[in-house]
Design brief:
CATH superfamily: Histidine kinase-like ATPase, C-terminal domain
CATH architecture: 2-Layer Sandwich
CATH topology: Heat Shock Protein 90
Radius of gyration: 14 Å
Distance between the termini: 24 Å
Number of helices: 3
CATH class: Alpha Beta
Number of domains: 1
Strand content: 15-25%
């Protein structure tokens, strides 16, 4: 099932996104749900901090029993993901996405970031 959640782009959006993940029923079995919650929270936080537009959209596709796909979209004009060269506090959301997911990406020319997780396949992208 694909669920669509729209939140105002404000400081409460990450919490609302975590609640949307927690409400999945039935959840995909065998997935690291703490990672799913963390990644969704990180991407929504990025959208609040760096994006634009009034809303953040979270799409959660758990229609296949062995797979989960999440997408976070806002009204920004886009970005190119780059590797972090420094070790400052903060700004590690996309690195976490890279390390913990089976695949992820950014739709070109947009602020539409997606990731996929499969049981036992995290960090293989």
């Amino acid at each position: 099932m694909v669920s669509r959640h729209v939140f105002p782009r404000d400081e409460r959006a990450p919490s609302r996104a975590r609640q949307a993940v927690a409400a999945l029923d039935p959840p995909v079995s065998g997935l690291p749900w703490e990672d799913v919650t963390l990644l969704v929270s990180e991407l929504v936080t990025n959208s609040v901090v760096y994006g634009s537009g009034e809303n953040v959209v979270l799409l959660i596709d758990d229609k296949r029993p062995e797979h989960l796909r999440c997408e976070v979209v806002d009204g920004g004009s886009g970005f190119v993901p780059t590797a972090r060269g420094d070790r400052t506090v903060g700004g590690w959301g996309l690195e976490l996405v890279e390390k913990l997911t089976s695949s992820w990406g950014v739709r070109e020319g947009s602020t539409h970031v997606w990731f996929e997780l499969s049981p036992g396949a995290s960090g293989t992208s």
